Amino acid sequence: MLIPLANAPRDYAWGATSLIADLEGRAPSGRPEAEVWFGDHPGDPAETPDGRTLDRWIAEDGAGAGIDAPLPYLLKLLAAASPLSIQAHPSKSQAEAGFAREEAVGTPRDAAERTYRDANHKPELIVALSDTFRALAGLREIDDTRRLVAALGPGAAPLAERLAQTDASLAAIIGWLLSDGADEARAVIAAAVAAARSSSHLGAVGTAEETVLGEFAAELELARTLEEGFPGDPGIVVALLMNLVTLRRGEGLFLPAGVLHAYLEGLGVELMAASDNVLRGGLTPKHIDAEELVRVLDPEPGLPPVVIGRPVGEGVHQYDVPVADFALLAVTPPPLGVDVSLDGPAIALATAGALTVTALASGASETLEPGRAVLVTPDENGVRVAGQGELFIALPGR
C-alpha cells in the first residue's frame, strides 16, 4: 500500500518564515514554520487521507500491511532562521536508566523540569536542502580552542586557565560554565563580541593574537550574533568550544549519542530515532540540567561528523549511519526511472521536481511534489521512482 501523508508546520520561534513554503510552492503563512513531521510519533503524527493520524492507522490497519509496531524513526523537514538550543542526546542505556529514575519519583512526563520523556535514544541525521546549512557539531580540537580563547585577552583568563590544564576536561568546563561560571562566561562573551567587532581589520598581518582572531572570525561573529539573541547566555561560550560547520546542499551531519550540537540556519531533511530526550546546554529559556548533560556528553574533541551520500544504484545514494533505527536514501532517478528495494516500512518525501512513486508489488502509484510524502508498507517490497526531481526515503536501519 501507498498511504499519502500530510502535516502542518510547527511554529517554533526559531523557524524560518519562507523556507518550507518556498519548497512547497505556496505563499508563506506569516508565522515561523520550523518543522513538518512525517511519522507516527504521538507528539504530532502525520495524517492519512481518511482523516486518521498515522499512529492510529498503524494500530488499526498496520499489521495487515506488515507493520506490527510503531515506526522506529521520525522524518522531518526542518527550517531554521535562528539557532536552536545547544543540546546532546543520551544513549539507549542512559535513556532507559534516566527514564526509570524520573518515573520512580513521579515527575510528570510533561513537566518543564523533566529530562527523560521516554526510554529511547535519539541519534539524528540532517541533510542540507538549502545551498548552505550552518550548525555547531562536536567539540573543537582543544589546542585550537586554547589558541582562540588565549587570544581573547584578560576577560577570557578564567576559561583560558581551565583549558590550559594538562588534564583539562571539556565536559567539566561546560558543566562549570552552565552552573557556577556564569560571571566568567559574561566576561568571555564581552571579549569575543569585542573581537568580532574588530574582526574585519584582522588578518594574516598583525600580532599573533590578531592573526588567531582573524582565523576564527566566523566563530567570533557567531558569538556576536548569539549575544544579540541570548544576552549573557553561558551557551555562547559553550558555542565557542564547538566546531562551526557549513554543509553544502546534499551533505549530511550525523549526531550520535553524546555529541553536542545546535542547528543555526538553513533548510534540511532530518531523520532521527523516535524520542523526545534532549539535554540542553544553552541558548534556550528551557530547563538545563547541567549535571545530566555532563554525564551523557561525549567529551572527546574531533572533526565534525559530516556524512556524504554513497552511491548504491543508478541515481540512488545512501547516507551510512551506524544505527539500527533508521537509514536514509536520496533518489534522483535517471530518465527511465529506477527500482528501489525497501526492507521494512518506509516514508518517501519529495524535495524537488515532480516524481511518480509506484509500488513494486501492487502497482499502486502516487505523484509527489516537493513537501509531499507517502508511507510505503513492507508488503510492497519497494518502489519504482520516475520523473525529474529529488526524493528522500526513510526506512529502518540494518
TrEMBL record:
Per the record, what are the reactions this protein catalyses? D-mannose 6-phosphate = D-fructose 6-phosphate
- Where on the tree of life does the source sit, at the highest rank? Bacteria
| GO MF assignments | mannose-6-phosphate isomerase activity
User: What start-end ranges are recorded for coiled-coil regions in this protein?
Assistant: none
Question: For the Phosphomannose isomerase type I catalytic domain, which residue ranges apply?
Answer: 3-140
Q: InterPro entries recorded for this chain?
A: Man6P_Isoase-1, Mannose-6-P_Isomerase, Pmannose_isomerase-type1_CS, PMI_typeI_cat, RmlC-like_jellyroll, RmlC_Cupin_sf
> Entry's PROSITE patterns?
PMI_I_1 (PS00965)
Sorted alphabetically, the keyword list is: Isomerase, Metal-binding, Zinc
* Similarity section: Belongs to the mannose-6-phosphate isomerase type 1 family.
Name the record gives this protein? mannose-6-phosphate isomerase
Its source organism is Microbacterium arthrosphaerae
